[in-house]
Design goal:
With about 400 residues, the chain is an alpha/beta fold. It has helices at about 1-40, 85-105, 125-135, 150-155, 165-170, 200-220, 265, 280-290, 350-370, 375-390; strands spanning about 50-55, 60, 65-70, 110, 145-150, 180, 185-190, 240, 295, 305, 310-315, 330-335, 340-345.
Amino acid sequence: MAAIRFGFGRLKRRSFLLLKLVAFVLAVLLFCEFLIYYLVIFQCNWPEVKTPAQRGEQKTLEPVLKAMFLADTHLLGEVRGHWLDKLRREWQMERAFQTALWLLQPEVVFILGDIFDEGKWSTSQAWEDDVERFQKMFRHPRHVLLKVVAGNHDIGFHYQMNRYRIKRFEKVFSPERLFSWKGINFVMVNSVALEGDGCSICSEAEAELIEISHQLNCSREAQRPGHCEDGQPLPASAPVLLQHFPLYRRSDANCSGEDAAPPEERGTPFKERYDALSREASQKLLWWLRPRLVLSGHTHSACEVLHGAGIPELSVPSFSWRNRNNPSFIMGSITPTEYALAKCYLPCEDTVLITYCGAAGFLVAFVLVHLGLLTSPFHFGCKLLRKFKTM
């Protein structure tokens, strides 16, 4: 009878131990895979923008548009993709995006190119599979708009780009270049096509931008001249320019901040038409569109640059752990005349890995102590204390 009770008690202790271990593992998984995103993104707040506008003697408030800007998700395809990347990096982007939507409630999300990593060479079936994964990861409510510009990994660099890849991309993501909402104009440029060598695709892209420039110039006219009578007039607001390639700059040498390029890489000269747009293409965009703000991607690192007569450009860092340890996105509060920007960081990959390693070490130590193969810190401390007392 005593033996049965002893065996039952031993089994009960082992079951209780197993239950504690399972609860601990589930708690670590819950924190690292769900809660950490809420804890980190909860600290982000929409920046405040001054909205008063004078209309005669009556002061009114301009509507504020809440916009998220992210870049370079680089979803791997059938060639470079593997299960571990889907398990870690794609899950990270999905949880970060869905958590940001739930906590921050943006009205529009802009992705600044390189959504896919292998769009420049993927087959039709591989492209459809990648699109399906993207739409699952970046699903969003109907009242939230998702706007995307093309990157070099989506349609290829100039020498890889062709009409088939462009049409394939635009079939999924709207070809709309000029987008207006709440009195704010956004111009979304296919910067890959701004090679400036007179190719047919490049010529069409430039002609389209010249037409947009014409519409924007007409919107700025107090009294519309005869050549501006056609079509619905645009809001009289300087546009926000969105593209994948940054405007021309020599390097990232003047960039700073924790999510800028590493110090050893900042002085590396940029190659025109590869790392950034050419001088000529950049000057054309600034001259034609006269934007008040430029946002771009491609470099995977943050940078703030002033162009021409003080036009600011922000390079948005990559949204993926694959490209950097501390991804982030930009939150913009925008009105027809003003804007305010803030950066929202995502959880660092190192933080998650260190948490897992620490939890694994604790788990091993706990099991060893329970099996009597390792002295617990409490008993070890008591022994030391008794030893010092007897000395």
